[in-house]
Amino acid sequence: MQILDAIQNLSPSSFCLPPADVSFASITTPLPFNPIKLICLVIWVYLCLFFIQRIQFSSLVPHKYKPAAYIVTLFTGPILMLILLIVDTAKRASESNVSISEILKQHIQQAIANIRSGGSKRLHKKSAIRLLDSSGRSIYDIYGHGDKKRQDNRILDLTEKVIADALERGASDILIDPKDDLTYTIRLRIDGVLRTVKELSTGTCKAIVNSIKAVSSMDISEKRRPQDGAFTAKKAGTTASFRVASAGVLNGEKLSIRVLNQNAGTFTLADIGLTKKQYSIIKNAINKPSGMVLICGPTGSGKTTTMYAMLNEIDRFTHNVITVEDPIEATLPEASQIEINPKADITFAKTLRSVLRQDPDVICVGEIRDEETAEIALRASQTGHLVLATIHCESNATALVRLLDLGISPLLLSSGLSLLHSQRLLRKLCTHCKQPAELSEDLIHKFQSKGIEYTNIFEATGCKHCEDTGYSGRTAVCDLQVITDHIKADIANNKISIDELRTEGNKKGRSHMRKEGLKTVAAGITSLEEIKRVLG
Q1: Beta-strand relationship, 336-339 and 238-249
Q2: Measured distance CA(231)–CA(402) in Å, rounded
Q3: d(CA 256, CA 213)
Q4: Stretch (H or E) spanning 189
Q5: CB of 220 within 8 A of CB of 211?
Q6: DSSP SS3 for 389
Q7: How far is the C-alpha of 48 from the C-alpha of 241, rounded, in Å?
């Protein structure tokens, strides 16, 4: 009985389990953290890491600023991406006639497409960059789908990574060629210089070559006969175009991929490194209603970019501008651009004939390759049209020699040509690591005798910003020759020679290209080693 009485006297709080009439909130121990805040923190960290990956493939952030962008994004996450989205939208709206609402609609549609493809690991990987053939099919659609395609997917992902890395580093060419029986090398031409970036096994690299040939509409079964093709890549809302050439070589097959400069359409004459005098000469030539401006230089010397820069100085709203190119490297608003296609019998000569019937004010010829194209272009410059053209040759003097060698009559050449413009591209010294150059006494004496200031001459060192090369970016060094009445008379009478042309150029104050290059050295823009490499 005593035990029963003791039990009856116990209060409900004496038990571990509360009775029903005691509220749960009154006995629950408060948690040391807020679960909602913890969930929000996890989501924020995930978004920060996700947007860091997006920054890696974004063209809005320059390559040299990406390490800083990674750090900022790690803390700001979606806020930075929202700012970049606003900047990109405003930039695209200002460069085109598309409204801001239409651009935002495209962003939303792209985001929805990425979300729908998020369930597949492969589709998620290819959202950063997509390789497309001429009909718009992706490289994955070309290879198809299936359970046994896992190995193919790895090769396709590696192919996309090679192309994305080339775009990221600003390469102009991608070379894939066999080193020996067991190894292939992948080299990138950055700022005009080749760099080996990767070595892969022969089996893996042959599969990459086949995938690029497939997306370029080339025959993958043909390994010996040279082939040509093209493909495009979409990345972060931008499109890049590529030209592909294959050839059978020792130990396998070589692939050369040219990255077309999609930013060429935004360049102006102020961006390519002209002096005030050179700018004035070119501006005067392109403001004339007729005449031919001929841009000379070897492959990779920036001729097409300079030609686009000249076209950007022309008011295309009041002038009918028609370009004939092979291929079209960049889009020019308010200009009619025609692409050459020899397979469809669309050649430079035939296209130029039809262009002359389209009431043009300015005609742009991508490249003069034969007598017929040169003759039509020169005749167009005689009949009240401004003609801009490029030609592969070493200098202004050899440009005249080549045109005469093509069979152009001296009288036609003298009456149509108004300005010769030859150029090269020099690498600019990295501003983070360049240091004053150590000059010998003989070199200092040479500079003093020529009146060149040598106290501001620098040399390359190398750092992480320039990938230990000492250089970052390029600038043009140009040599201009105005075709005066005296030179026209000598050409027409077949009295002109290379030596006479150079002498006449010196009398008219024309600067030699090497002398112009030394001016960039004296200004601390490039180095003496770069002048020697490019100009000899």
Answers
A1: unpaired
A2: 33
A3: 11
A4: strand 183-190
A5: no
A6: strand
A7: 31
Residue 273 CA to residue 284 CA, distance in Å, equals 17
| Domains, the chain | 35-119 (no CATH), 129-259 (3.30.450.90), 264-427+476-510 (3.40.50.300)
Query: Residue 244 in contact with residue 230, Cβ under 8 Å?
Result: yes
Kindly tell me the sign of the dihedral angle through the C-alpha atoms of 59, 61, 63, 68: negative
Alpha-carbon span 110 to 112, nearest angstrom: 5
d(C-alpha 398, C-alpha 392), whole Å: 10
* Angstrom distance (rounded) from CA 138 to CA 153: 13
**HEC profile of 219-247:** CCCCCCCCEEEEEEEEECCEEEEEEEEEE
Given a contact cutoff of 8 angstroms between Cβ atoms, the answer to whether 365 and 348 are in contact is yes
Angle between helices 66-76 and 35-56 (to 10 degrees): 160
Q: How far apart are CA 505 and CA 1, in angstroms?
A: 129
Angle between helices 100-116 and 78-95 (to 10 degrees): 130
Of 201, 156, 207, nearest to 183 (Cα)?
Answer: 201
- At which residue do the structure tokens 């075709």 appear? 483
CA distance 487 to 226: 43
**Cis amide leading into 327 (omega within 30):** yes
Q: Which residues of 64-94 are buried (b: 16+ CB within 10 A; e: fewer)?
A: eebeebeebbeeebeebbeebbeebbeebbe
Give the whole-angstrom CA distance, residue 61 versus residue 53: 12
Q: Which two tokens stand for residue 412?
A: 């036609």
* CA nearest to 216, candidates 153, 159, 261: 159
Q: What angle do CA 500, 402, 303 make, to 5 degrees?
A: 100
**C-alpha distances in angstroms, 131 versus 55, 123, 135, 401?**
20, 13, 11, 43
Per-residue pLDDT of the chain (536 residues; tens, 9 = 90+): 444 454 455 444 444 444 444 444 444 555 565 778 778 777 777 777 777 766 665 556 666 677 777 777 777 766 766 776 777 677 666 655 566 676 666 666 555 544 444 443 443 444 478 899 988 888 888 887 544 456 678 888 899 999 999 998 989 999 999 998 889 999 999 999 999 999 999 999 999 999 999 999 999 999 989 999 999 998 877 888 899 999 999 989 999 999 987 777 788 888 888 889 999 999 999 999 999 999 999 988 999 999 999 999 999 999 999 999 988 888 888 899 999 988 788 899 999 999 999 999 999 999 999 999 999 999 999 989 999 999 999 888 889 889 988 999 999 999 999 999 999 999 999 999 999 998 888 888 888 887 778 888 999 999 988 888 999 999 999 999 999 888 888 888 876 665 655 555 444 444 578 888 888 999 999 999 999 999 87
Looking at residue 511, its amino acid is S
Please give the backbone phi and psi of residue 246, each rounded to the nearest 5 degrees, phi first: -120, 155
